[in-house]
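Hi R.,

As promised, here are both runs. First protein below:
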Amino acid sequence: MNPTLMKQLIKENRFEELKQKLNKSNSEFKIHHLIYRILNDEKIEEEDSGFEANKYQEEFLEGLDLYKVFTNSAINNEQLKVYTAVLVHLVFKMGGFIRLMANTAMNKGVYLSDLGDVYQVNPEIRNELQLFIELLKNKNEIAAIANVAAVKAQISNSIGNLLKRHEIGEDMLQFGQSYEAVGQTEMASKIYSGIMNDFECASLKRSSGLFPEISYVDTRSQEEIMVFEKAKIRFENLTE
């Protein structure tokens, strides 16, 4: 089914017409078929989603594009919650698959980005995951936010060679903060501790602080220092 027509029908709240067209559609997107079932108030189990691993990214980008429109429509609140859960499950599967591919590449002594002919991570995925998080914040879906933030951090670490260090650090901070929000304070403190370890001044770390009278050269960028300081503050707030 034509995505432009789908979005137009959603914007105009013509859900019955949308269902009719989806029912007749032979769309290659699994997410379209799941939307049809959701609009019919069918119960969707996680194992029913049936997304293909090599299509996770495409399915997510298509699903999120439609989700943006649904959030401004008159869709039933319960149906939107079900759709949110479907997208979060898809995000979880996508993150796990990208991490698996990255680990497989690393075991071969290369980065995942070196295997573009085998599997490629769309550079827009991180931005779109962040957009999804912002939309979830508007709905106060704190558990969903924690799950999506965890996946974004996971993906950033999987393609770390393509990012600046502070970008990974900021995703890890968001990961920790989202876990704080759902009461997972022990896990959050571990995340902050890991960030502090990764973003501590390298020369000071190597010296183990044995000679405090010596001034060490801090080669970190301002953004990296800010990541460290934010993690330190949040860690201390949780552990003091």
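And here is the second one, sequence first, then its structure tokens:
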Amino acid sequence: MSTPPPEPISHTAEMVIATVVGVAVGLGLDNLLLGCVVGIALGIVLSIGKTLYLDRKRRRR
């Protein structure tokens, strides 16, 4: 018998954090395009970090 596939990872918390930081940067510096770039980049970095962390944690079990 094969093992069931792992549960999908939810990235909702990372996207909320990235959105809030992006909006804060955009409004704080009065540059909404920079805020969008910061928010997207931070969201990608946080999502990759969480995926790698959970993958490593699953493999140690």
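A quick note on the second one: The two ends are 19 Å apart (CA to CA). Let me know what you think.

Best,
J.
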